[in-house]
Amino acid sequence: MHDGRAQKTRYDKAGNLIGSTDLRSGTTDYTYDKLGRILEAANAGRNTKEKFAFDPAGNILDELARNAREGSLYRPQGNRIAGYDGTQYHYDALGNLTLRELPNGETQLFEYDTENQLIRAKLYKPDGEVQQWQYAYDPFGRRISKERIDKGSLHSTDPKRTVFIWDGSRLVQEYNYKGVYTYFYTDQDSYEPLAHVFLNKKDEKLYLSYYHTDQIGIPREQTDQFGSLLWTGEYDAWGSLQTENKIYPNAHQPFRLQNQYFDSETGLHYNLMRYYDPVCGRFINQDPIGLAGGEHLYMFAPNAQNWFDILGLAKTPRVKLGSLGEVRAASVILKRSHLGKGKATNQGNRDYARGLGKCDDDAGHILGKLLGGSRSNQNMFPQLRKINRGAYRDFERKVHNIIDKDGKALLKWKFEYANGGTRPTGIVYEVFQRGQRVLRGKFNN
Fold it and tell me: Boundaries of each Type VII secretion system protein EssD-like domain copy (predicted)?
C-alpha cells in the first residue's frame, strides 16, 4: 500500500526552489544566478550533479561553448543553438528545427507545414531501423492525432495511431487500439493532472490511476485506486525523465511539465502550440506570436523548478510559485490585440483564492480581464476586495490605455509576503516599453 508522497521544499528570498526532499528521491539542491536561471542541480544520494551556464542572450551553453566563453572566444551566433550535451541541431530559414543528431547515433528529421507545425518525423535509429511518424492538427492548432506510417509499424505491438480529444487547451482523452484514456485535473481550470480512467478494449473494464505531482505539477508517482504503486519517475532539471520504474508494466504516464505530453518516438514534449526539447530546456521552433512573447523566441523559462508555460506561448503570464503554491512573480508581453478578451472570475476561482487567503477575499486577476487575462487559477491570487475593485482596477485602465495607444508593453508583477503564508501583503505592478519603465503601481493587500 502506498502511503502518499511527502515532499519538503526550501526556497530562497527571491522565491526560487533551493531544496526538495522526499523519501524516494532524497534531497536535491538547486543554485541560481541573479536572473533566476538554474546553475546547478545536485543530489548527493543519487550521486548526480547537473551544471548549467548561459550566454548573454539566455541561450544554454554546451561545455565546449562554456569553456570558450571563459576564454573570451565565445561569440553568440543568435538564438539557434548548434549543439548541447552531445546533441547537434540544424534549422531551416524560418527557425524551425529540421535535423537533430543524438549522442547515441540516432538522426531525426523534421518537416513542418505552412503554419510551422511539426507534421512529420523521420527517425534513423542506431540499429538501422527507420521510423516515420505523421502528426495532424485541428484549425485551433491542437494536435488531434499521431501515426506511425512506415512498414515497420506492422510488426510493432505499440499503438500505430493515437487520437487526441481536447477541451479548450487541455487534453481530456486519447484513444488507440488498446483502449481509451480519459484525463482529470485538479480543478476545472488547472493543467495539473489528478487521475485518468482507462477503458481497456480487451476486457471492457475501467481502471483508475492517480497522479502524484511535485511543487510544479510534474507527476512523480502513480497509484491505482487502492493506493498500490504503479509507476515512479526521476527527472533532470529541465523536466526530462531520466529513470522510471514501472511496477505495473502497462502503466501509462505521458505527462511531464504542466500541459506537456511525452512523445516516446522523438523524446520531445508536445506543449500545445509548440514542441519542447527537454535536453536543452527550450522549444524547437520560434514563438508563434513572435516578439509579443519576448525577445528570445525559443526560451521556455529561466528554470523549470518554479516556472511553467502551459500553452507554449509566452503571451500567457509566466507565473512563479513559492513553496506553498503562492504566486511570487509574473510577467507577460501584451499586444493591443489581446485587450478586452479576458474572462470574469467564477465561484471556482473565488474558492481557490480564498483557500490561499481570507474568506472574503476577491479572486484577483494577475493579468486583468480588461487586458485579456484568463480565469485560469494560475492567473488568480487572493486580493482585498476594495483594492481589486478600486485602485487596482483604475491602474489596469491606465495600462490598457498605454497598450491601446502604443501597441504593446511588458508587464511585470512582484508579490510581497511580509508575514509569510500564501496571501500577499503587497503587489508591485510595473509596465515597460522599449526597455524603459513607463508606469509603476504598488498596492497594499
Answer: 357-425
What is the C-alpha to C-alpha distance for residues 232 and 61, in angstroms, rounded to an integer?
Answer: 30
pTM of this prediction? 0.72
Domain ranges of the chain: 81-283, 317-444
Cell numbers 485535473: residue: 185
Average pLDDT of the chain is 86
In the predicted model, what is the mean pLDDT of residues 268-277? 93
Q: What is the Cα–Cα distance from 396 to 191, expressed in whole angstroms?
A: 27
> 205 Cβ partners below 8 Å, 6+ apart?
199
CA distance 323 to 397: 32
C-alpha to C-alpha distance for 299 and 312, rounded to whole angstroms: 10
HSE of 346, CA atoms in CB hemisphere, 13 A: 10
Write the single-letter amino acid at 292: A
pLDDT at 76: 45
The three cell numbers of residue 302 are: 529561466
The per-residue DSSP string of 41-97 comes to EEETTTTEEEE--B-TTSPBPPHHHHHHHHTT------S--SEETTEEEEE-TTS-E
Tens digits of per-residue pLDDT, 40-74? 999 988 888 989 888 877 788 876 555 544 444 44
Question: How wide is the angle at C-alpha 238 spanned by C-alphas 237 and 241, nearest 5°?
Answer: 85
Selection from 74-83, 198-207, 365-374, 413-422 with the highest mean pLDDT: 198-207
Whether the CB-CB separation of 234 and 25 falls below 8 Å is answered with yes
- The CATH fold assigned to 317-444 is Extracellular Endonuclease; Chain A (3.40.570)
Q: Which of 392, 426, 5 is nearest to 218 (CA)?
A: 5
Backbone angles phi, psi at 153, to 5 degrees: -65, -20
Cα gap 250→248, rounded to integer Å: 6
Q: How many CB atoms lie within 10 A of CB 21?
A: 16
Estimate the share of the chain in helix, then strand, then coil, as percent rounded to the nearest 5. 15, 40, 45
CA 385, CA 96: separation in Å to the nearest integer?
A: 46
Which residues have C-beta within 8 Å of that of residue 275, sequence separation ≥ 6? 118, 263, 266, 268, 269, 283, 284, 285, 312
- What span, in angstroms and rounded, lies between the C-alpha atoms of 359 and 376? 20
Residue 109 CA to residue 107 CA, distance in Å, equals 7
Q: Cα–chain-centroid distance for residue 304? A: 8
